[in-house]
Automatic annotation (TrEMBL):
EC number annotated for this UniProt entry: 2.7.7.8
Species annotation: Pinibacter soli
GO molecular function, one term: polyribonucleotide nucleotidyltransferase activity
Catalytic activity: RNA(n+1) + phosphate = RNA(n) + a ribonucleoside 5'-diphosphate
Protein name according to UniProt: Polyribonucleotide nucleotidyltransferase
Alphabetical list of Pfam families matching this protein: KH_1 (PF00013), PNPase (PF03726), RNase_PH (PF01138), RNase_PH_C (PF03725), S1 (PF00575)
Spans through the membrane: none
Cofactor: Mg(2+)
Compartments, record wording: Cytoplasm
Superkingdom field: Bacteria
Role played: Involved in mRNA degradation. Catalyzes the phosphorolysis of single-stranded polyribonucleotides processively in the 3'- to 5'-direction.
């Protein structure tokens, strides 16, 4: 007989409920649940090996989030018509889950763990990313995998001044703050999101509101676990320890590591000195363990010694920063490394900037494209086009290493997304005609290349003539805590990122925060410490912004001469057919005659016309042509017309694109003409005035002579009041 599923339902506000269920699907996994809100259903499974692999020295956690297209009743658009590698959106959601789950496992737990989260039913209004981490945590909670705590994750958005937990997709479109927060019932674990220049206190309030909502979700998971009868977690094999060996390592190397740590050396020089100490340590241990000449230390002893040595480095450097208030490169806690900025350094890209901060360097370019270059962002629920694209590349030479060159990894996708969300806040609106692609290539890296990308991207956008109103900068912060002491570090090094208790990146303008990515590794972090960290981040951000404004005070007034020209027009819906013409005849003629490219779409009951060309003259000509087609002729206006054909009774002239009228022979000159021969010919350009329309036929009445000086003594024409 099949076991009955167990479920728990709770309210998330606004009459919305979420149900967690286990025992029905994927019952051979160590833990499996479904999470449902509306028609959105997420399946999460967790499986862990019973024993670690031989020699395993790190925690191998794999988290994958995937959206099945069938969940929304759609067939994938790829050639194979099946889901392929994870999209960038799925990678980003996988990272949100991974970063929140990873600190929950014991430090000495090295068994392989795989958490798979799958969207199996989609609701167009319910955002699945806000429920994905809840599902992953619940799958672990109902298993015997030895996680130490239960967590959850919620989205908090500010909509019309009100903070909303897990808003609907349609509500999110008008939000000016959008943050995902993960936490246990006691501690904040992770924060990521974007805002339109919110204050530090606004962010703190969003975190506090999120934490209250998360506590309800954690309690629901605890009740589900109790209902399933999970009371203990599995035992696991812990790595062997040798405290005598640890003592020998600490006794020999502590003072030596401290001397290197306070030597203010560069990254590679410091690394070389630490390596030398390790070699000296191994030689010392050979003597201590009476290893014969020509023999080597036992492999297990050598491996443990190296692990203890790296642990020692970690603690010595942390203690030095906490006690001496001095950092590895000699800076004070709030000091930003030396800055150097240069723009317009590459002749061919449409915009470029080189941003250097200490040993971190980003070379960033901007390319301006047409609407045809927009990026299709596809998920199970919807597909939309993005006009702003940012790609981040991290080649191995940036850290002096050799690695195979593959496609962008999860780290590159995540760092690029943070920079994109930050700079997007200052991008012009939908009426801006260009598609903009920013590419950051990291040439050197020692601490927060993602923040260098934000700064370099802002400089390059202004260099390209993109009308961004303000600079956006970013700074990476660190935190070290121990026994009541703490130190907040501005502009962290790579080593400080590794040894810190909190890594958080804050981007923004002079007026507020645009983006945040925060990972907290320590329990019991108070909001007061977080407030101090955010205030210090603000000061670091302002220091960098001041230098950026000195380098580039404002965006170029126009794009560079070699950049493509783009103009966007909005025309009445009724004129779309006139611009296109029968079978596309008119729009093809405009493109052929002007050398421009024209894209016309109907949006919001209007015609959106994008005109693209490599020369300003060709774009201006196409703009004038289209404006002429959609213009409504006004009586009394003067137009520059082209003679199309000559008749015995006058000339037919085109005074607006697609609009012709008869210039009667009597309206060509004040002098009586028997013929137009020698006066006008086809192709002549003449100015004419629209004097009216024929009440019977509706044809336009045009006059040239009314614009010419009237000979003296000639009577004024009847019905005309102007000479």
């Amino acid at each position: 007989m099949l076991s009955q599923p167990i479920s728990k339902t709770f309210d998330i506000g606004g009459g919305r409920t979420v149900t967690i269920e286990t025992g029905k699907l994927a019952r051979q996994a160590d833990g499996a649940v479904t999470v449902r809100q509306g028609n959105c259903i997420i399946l999460a499974t967790a499986v862990a090996n019973k024993e670690p692999k031989e020699g395993q020295s790190f925690f191998p956690l794999t988290v994958d989030y995937q959206e099945k297209f069938a969940s929304a009743g759609r067939i994938p658009g790829s050639f194979f018509k099946r889901e392929g590698r994870l999209s960038d959106s799925e990678v980003l959601i996988s990272r949100l889950i991974d970063r929140a789950l990873r600190p929950l496992f014991p430090e000495d737990y090295f068994c392989d763990v795989q958490v798979l989260v799958t969207l199996i039913s989609s609701d167009p209004e319910v955002m699945p990313d806000a429920l994905a981490c809840l599902a992953a945590s619940a799958a672990l909670a109902v298993s015997d995998i030895p996680v130490q705590e239960i967590i959850s994750e919620v989205r908090v958005a500010r909509i019309n001044g009100e903070y909303v937990v897990n808003p609907y997709r349609s509500q999110l479109a008008t939000a000016d703050m959008d943050f995902i927060i993960a936490a246990t019932d006691k501690n904040i674990m992770m924060v990521e999101g974007e805002s339109k220049e919110c204050s530090e206190e606004d962010l703190i309030k969003a975190i506090e509101i999120a934490h209250d909502a998360i506590r309800i979700q954690v309690k629901a998971q605890e009740e589900l676990r109790a209902a399933k009868g999970i009371t203990t977690k599995r035992e696991y094999t812990k790595p062997a320890q040798d405290e005598e060996l640890r003592g020998k390592v600490n006794e020999f190397a502590t003072s030596k590591v401290y001397e290197v740590a306070k030597s203010k050396s560069s990254k590679h020089e410091r690394g070389d000195k630490f390596d030398e100490i390790q070699e000296e340590l191994l030689a010392h241990l050979k003597t201590a363990y009476n290893v014969a000449e020509g023999e080597d230390l036992d492999d297990k002893v050598k491996k443990l010694a190296k692990n203890y040595y790296h642990d020692l480095q970690y603690h010595v450097v942390r203690d030095m920063i906490l006690n001496d208030r001095v950092r590895l490169d000699g800076r004070g806690l709030e000091d930003v490394r030396p800055l150097a900025m240069e723009t317009d350094l590459l002749p061919t890209p449409h915009g470029s900037a080189l941003f250097t901060r200490g040993e971190t360097q980003s070379l960033t370019t901007v390319t301006l494209g047409t609407p045809l270059d927009e990026l299709l962002v596809e998920s199970a629920a919807n597909s939309e086009y993005s006009k702003f694209i940012l790609h981040y590349n991290f080649p191995p030479f940036s850290t002096g290493e050799i690695k195979p060159m593959r496609g962008p990894g999860r780290r590159e996708v995540g760092h690029g997304n943070l920079a994109m969300r930050s700079l997007k806040q200052m991008m012009p609106g939908s009426d801006y005609a260009y598609t903009v692609r920013v590419v950051s290539d990291i040439l050197e890296s020692n601490g927060s290349s993602s923040m260098a990308t934000v700064c370099a991207g802002s400089l390059a956008l202004m260099d390209a003539g993109v009308p961004v109103p303000k600079h956006v900068s970013g700074v990476a912060m660190g935190l070290i805590t121990k026994e009541g002491k703490f130190a907040v570090l501005t502009d962290i090094l790579g080593d400080e990122d590794h040894l810190g208790d909190m890594d958080f990146k804050v981007t923004g303008t002079r007026d507020g925060i645009c983006g945040v990515q925060m990972d907290i590794k320590v329990d019991g972090l108070s909001m007061e410490v977080m407030r101090q960290a955010l205030a210090q981040a603000n000061r670091g951000r302002m220091h960098i912004l001041n230098a950026m404004y000195e380098a580039v005070p404002a965006a170029r007034a126009d794009v560079k001469p070699h950049a493509p020209r783009m103009v966007k027009l909005f025309i009445d819906k009724e004129f779309i057919g006139a611009v296109i013409g029968p079978g596309g005849k008119v729009i093809q003629e405009i493109q052929r005659e002007t050398g421009s490219t024209i894209n016309l779409e109907e949006k919001n009951n209007m015609g959106e016309v994008s005109i693209f060309g490599t020369k300003k003259e060709s774009v201006d000509k196409a703009v004038s042509w289209i404006k002429g087609i959609v213009a409504v002729p006004e009586v009394g206006e003067v137009y520059e017309s082209t003679v199309k054909s000559i008749m015995p009774y006058g000339a037919f002239v085109e005074f607006l694109p697609g609009k012709q009228g008869l210039l009667h022979i009597s309206e060509v000159s004040w002098k009586r003409l028997e013929t137009l021969e020698g006066v006008l010919k086809e192709g002549d350009v003449v100015k004419v005035k629209l004097t009216g329309t024929d009440p019977k036929t509706g044809k336009f009445k045009l006059s040239r002579k009314i614009l010419l000086p009237k000979p003296e003594g000639m009577p004024k024409p009847q019905g005309d009041q102007q000479a």
